[in-house]
Amino acid sequence: MASEDVKRREGVNKAPSNAVIGICKSLIAGGVAGGVSRTAVAPLERLKILLQVQNPHSIKYNGTVQGLKYIWRTEGFRGLFKGNGANCARIVPNSAVKFFSYEQASKGILYLYRQQTGNADDAQLTPLLRLGAGACAGIIAMSATYPMDMVRGRLTVQTDKSPYQYRGMVHALSTVLRQEGPRALYRGWLPSVIGVVPYVGLNFAVYESLKDWLVKSKPFGIIDNNNSELTVTTRLACGAIAGTMGQTVAYPLDVVRRRMQMVGWKDASSVITGDGRGKAPIEYSGMVDAFRKTVRHEGLGALYKGLVPNSVKVVPSIAIAFVTYEKVKDILGVEFRISD
Question: Hey, how many other C-beta atoms are within 10 angstroms of the C-beta on 55?
Fold first, then answer.
């Protein structure tokens, strides 16, 4: 009897310990996935932001190749990766929280869905429910790390010919807090929340739904015969399709968010968009005002500035992130994956 009590207590103590270890492994896998995928496309990420906020009266480049050549010529190899350290400092925790939040949201939504349908074992998440789980994960992750994204955008925009107001992420955070107040760190948050719903939601929903369909239909050559799972190449393709759909829908909101983040930066007039009468930066009173002024001064096409490098970037970035996440969790021995 005494031995049974001891075993029972050991089991109770062991369960929370295993749960904590599982959470840590999941967060590590998500962080690694985010860091690897974003570093792989860092030059395209920087070019996208520069195009989004470029002054229309002082255009230095119009295309992806031309822009990358200009950065290489004026700033060298390091210029291609400027802001990547700050970006990784943001994307690693963001990705960790996003993937973990998606797993937890999926479990919770699936439990409620099974309770509602009365099917406790066989019911699976529908694409719409996956979209909801992905949207929840995106909002949580984005909100938790938004101040870092805000200052990362400003660090990325700085060039050799612009005043260097910020020396790094910590200096940028402290400077914005001191000069513009705490609210400035969340400038552009609303369009980010609205944009993250279709972006992250579609990423997860399309990726998983496409994988489920491929596993069930089993077209020739996409299943690894050794373990009856999709090959890495097929997973990359699924991630690429998911990323393309998500970013196309949400891109105008990303442009508006980035421009709102530049508001209040007094030394940024040489690099951010002008008001149509010179190089003075535009002031936006809110998201709707940012949309209206952008379209009025630069046309509807301005909402898609930087879309080409972003499309080139997002396809490998999302694909690498999904595959890296699942592979790292395999290495760490975590049983639950987003593909389960």
Answer: 19
User: What string of DSSP letters covers 88-157?
Assistant: HHHHHHHHHHHHHHHHHHHHHHHHHHHHHHT-SSS----HHHHHHHHHHHHHHHHHHHHHHHHHHHHHHH
The pTM of the full predicted model, rounded to 2 decimals, is 0.62
Residue 330 token pair: 């395999």
Separation CA 190–CA 195 (nearest Å) = 8
The total of other beta-carbon atoms located within 10 Å of residue 289's CB is 14
User: Each residue of 91-134: pLDDT tens digit?
Assistant: 888 888 888 888 888 888 888 888 887 766 667 778 888 888 88
Which CATH architecture group holds 16-332?
Alpha/alpha barrel (1.50)
Domain edges within the chain: 16-332
The residues, ordered by sequence, that sit 6+ positions from 322 with a Cβ below 8 Å of its Cβ are 33, 207, 235, 238, 239, 242, 338
CA pair distance 127, 300, nearest whole angstrom = 31
Distance CA 282, CA 298 (A): 12
The owner of tokens 């260097």 is: 164
C-alpha to C-alpha distance for 50 and 73, rounded to whole angstroms: 15
